[in-house]
Amino acid sequence: MEQLYGSHASPFRCRFLSSYLSQIKYQILKVIVLMYNCSSPTWTSHLGLIPFGLVVPMKSWILLVRLEKYVMTKIFNRTFAPVPDEKKHDDQLSEKMALVQQFIRPENLDISSTFRNENSWLLAQKELQKINMYKAPRDKLLCILNFCKVINNLLLNGSLSSKQNPPGADEFLPVLIYVIIKANPPQLYSNLLYIQRYRFRSRLVSEVAYYFTNILSAESFIWNINAKALSMNELEFQKKMESARAFLPVFLSNSSQNISGIKFEYKGNKMDRIKTNKSIGEQLSATSGSHQFHSQSSEYRKDPFIANRRSVSVSESQEDSNPLEEQELARYFVEYPFLYTSVGDLTIKDVETLLHSYKKIVIEYVSLSKGKTDINQSFSSPFSENKTQTNNNNIDSVDESHKSVEN
Amino acid sequence: MGCASSVPDRNAGSLTGLNDGSTASDSKNLKVKLVLLGDSGVGKSCIVLRFVRGQFDPTSKVTVGASFLSQTIALPDSTTVKFEIWDTAGQERYAALAPLYYRGAAVAVVAYDITSSESFSKAKYWVKELQKHGSPDIVMALVGNKADLHENRVVSVEDAVEYAEKNGMFFIETSAKTADNINQLFEEIAKRLPRPSVVSV
């Protein structure tokens, strides 16, 4: 099996994996032997793979590719980022990109103005972000290749329209790095390691190897990024990193939105808005920080709720509502932890709490609306209550009647 | 170097290990990895495009970028050599990444611009790097590009020849613009390649 997946797999192989692999090893060998028997005598390809150092005919190659996909999908959870160190590396890399992406400019990486086209780079970003949708090494690798292809084509269009020399690596690598930083794909490092370890060596050659090397070197560049690498003054770099760190909670909540599949993209005006509301961002992060480590269920619910509100406030760019007001508003909802919970988040244990709060709210609502109609009647103002209100309106009206009771 | 350090060495023996299933490397048909080093702006990608497509016209359509290209040439002794050409980014800030690219390369072409002494000193830097970290039997070529601009020449042929001889390199001046010496460069490299019978041992 080591011959199949390379010796790099061995240091990280756990006992479970080892026994599992040895089981399927026999299956694979059986299949190969079968393929030998029924294939034509002219072996068209020499794939360098393979157990026994024998050549494998093309048909069995296709089969092996499918097997690779099948096996790797089955054991994905055990083989992807198997050690804590790798997860840590992923997190640190991702944090670094989250920081740097806030202030990096194309000129920091020697991207000439002819090739700057940030809008179409979004296209490439999307390709790269698909990488975590796949489990098989081959599919992940294909994502990377498509990503490189998109960048190559964009560069080519740029050079054609400006009648410049066709883009070589001098143009390609900087744009690649820039787009990766902007995309900040989760678990990039683990993905690369995974491909290296489990993709058939014989297929990681030529053009594929070249573009894979480019991604590796981009990862290495980003990991080691510093003031010098960006042609910045050391002091300026530190300052920018620090101010970027202040905004980081806002950015992180966005990236978690990305993972959960909700489409979110940065536009210039959003960025500006975040910057003008710096103090608010800090306040918000402080709020969520104070809730972070409570494990009690009601407290625990507040945190995702606030995080949710925060990212919503960031993503709504059209209506320029004041986030301070939103925060004020948020305080009213703290008592209603389930307001923003989705069905998948609920557990059996929640049913009891849910029922309890439901009863509480109904009782509150009924008594308040009764009180309200009483007051309205006593002032003899014609006010008809809409009985088919949504959840949100319910609370608003509760709020309203509360005020009118105070009056 | 992060995950870079665990790049498989298996395809390091580029002459024997680079089979992609369609062709096999044998004594008649070689496949070699060629890495292109040099400062940005010396015309690395133009040299490759000239060689691969026989054209210089920057507006003519090419299907992919010039950062990875391959081209096969036939030698008089009826062998063929397929070059897989890996371009590298020449800017200073990316210099530390070069080892990832020249790992396992059988040939390194170090290019400079004859009208820029800066690019020549950069070329010397690459030669030193290759001697330190490249594979010991790598074939190195020193290429002075933009030979058509000889009225602006600042790097003399003598200097370059002397440096190349001292370091056991093959030297040639080329012009991607006029196609001068482009094919000669790659043919000469092909002749200097060790035959697979030697390499595969």
UniProtKB/TrEMBL annotation, chain A:
Please state every residue range assigned to the domain named VPS9: 87-231
User: Where is the segment annotated Disordered?
Assistant: 377-407
Q: Which domain of life is it from?
A: Eukaryota
- SMART domains documented for this protein: VPS9
Task: Cite the Pfam families for this sequence.
Answer: VPS9
Please tell me the species this chain comes from: Zostera marina
What protein does this entry describe?
Putative Guanine nucleotide exchange factor Vps9
Gene Ontology cellular component annotations, sorted alphabetically: cytosol; endocytic vesicle
Picking any one GO molecular function of the record gives:
small GTPase binding
Q: Where is the composition biased (Polar residues)?
A: 377-396
Q: Name one GO biological process term.
A: vesicle-mediated transport
TrEMBL record, chain B:
What organism, scientifically named, is this protein from? Answer: Zostera marina
**UniProt KW Cell wall biogenesis/degradation keyword:** no
Among NCBIfam families, the record links this protein to: small_GTP
Which PROSITE patterns is this protein grouped with? RAB, RAS, RHO
- Mind naming one GO cellular-component term on file for this protein? endocytic vesicle
- PANTHER family found in the cross-reference section: PTHR47978
Gene Ontology biological-process annotations: intracellular protein transport
Provide the coiled-coil residue spans. Answer: none
Q: Name one Pfam family in it.
A: Ras
Would the keyword Nucleotide-binding turn up in this protein's UniProt record? yes
Superkingdom of this protein's organism: Eukaryota
Provide this UniProt record's keywords sorted from A to Z: Nucleotide-binding
Q: Any idea what this protein is called?
A: Ras-related protein RABF1
What Gene Ontology molecular function terms does this protein carry? GTP binding; GTPase activity
